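Cross-posting from the modeling subforum.

Setting up a comparison between two proteins and wanted a second pair of eyes on the formatting. Protein 1 (sequence, then structure tokens):
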Amino acid sequence: MVSNVVIQDILAKKAAGVERMRYRQMRIQERLADRVENDPKAIEEGLSKVRSQLAKRACPAREIYQEWETILTTKTASYVANLLRDTSPESDQLRACAPFKLA
């Protein structure tokens, strides 16, 4: 039988791994936000990717990409950058499907 100490150690390592992953994701989102603010082409490229995804018959994240299309056609680059930096659970899905790439 596995001891309680071993189980606690495994759970602590798993939690640390999840935290490292979240930190890496936040750093990437920060870099994407900087790009959106500093590169005028980033919004156009993101919109192109969104429309490409929406053109697919089987787009598993259609609702999210539709929301991105609305955001990219109606909001400012500053708004988009702030959305990418937002760490609230409400924006998790949007950030996970962010249509931007690092230059």
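Protein 2 (same layout):
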Amino acid sequence: MFNLSCPLAKPVLVLEDDPNVQIRIEKLLYAFGYLKKDILFAQSVITAKQYSQQHNVQLALVDLGLPDGNGIEFINYLRLEQHKTNIPVMVISAWNTTEMIYQALSAGATGYVLKERDDLEIMFALRSILTGGAIIDPSIAKEILNKFVGVETHPNPLKNKTALSNRETEILKLIASGLSSKEISLQLAIAKYTVDVHIKNIYQKLEVNSRTKAINVAQNCGLLK
């Protein structure tokens, strides 16, 4: 494993409402040398704001889809209202739409990494942030580059909202067959939270908020053959 030795920004505020993802992030932070007392967990935007008022937060790891709003609201709060312009803020999210990525970066996010990445990749991203760097998930950096140069390197015949990855298409077909997230995770031999991340991405791309709607849209688009 790569060298984890780097300056630790304390305390860390983790804005994440999924308990399983909280546990995962906590373990990754422990690997860097953080202690339990160094980590503040918030499951909502309002709680995150309260913690940032009570503690001198030096690093924020932020999800976007939250029960009471969007993590971008919290990033704006840190940067504009608390004037914390220098602390690193890394988005760890299942959302990979270009619009959402631009909004997060424009609000002041230092980095953006997808939850579907394995632990080593997230740790690499975290180390880059802690050592003063900025990191963008490789799968979305290409989209950003294409946006800036105004050229689509690999045009997709499908509209953006239906451009599902092979894994997302596979999971969508299993959803259509009636399998639950747990059953899909067992069949594909991947963690349930990974399945849930893919399902969130599917919802985002198909612009739906339920399995039934996702199946209907996919059928209309010819994705379920």
